[in-house]
Amino acid sequence: MSNRHLGRTVAMQTLYEWDFNGQKTTGRITDTAKKNIDKFAPGFDDPKFTLHIVEGVLQHQPKIDELITKYAPEWPLAQITVVDRNILRIGVFELRFDDDIPPKVAINEAIELAKSFGGESSGKFVNGVLGAIYKDMEQTISEPSQPKQ
Known about the structure:
By secondary structure, this protein is mainly alpha-helical.
């Protein structure tokens, strides 16, 4: 498992714990992430990457959740499994708010997390949501500027 994939896995486990506990540990989320790094990834040499994801998701959570709701309208956020919801949050964060991660890497990594930790159709679900977001991002970027009137 690559270093960054491991970092995303620990970030997902941390966000899962936070979400499962009613999103009450926001103030201690860094401590939770460090505990999970020690527990699930002893010797992991890039804890800043994991913390960056966790803190970034929390910082942008309202907009991230809004995007998930928009692009998965048949699935109210509360009805998406805790695992899939937090994998989507990581994927959306990396796709929309982290310029250091190429979009296709963000999508592929989220799909791999979903296949490993989600249900039977989680990979397809995550791919569909993130793919739709990315498609709209590409269209927005490639649309020619309209002349001002």
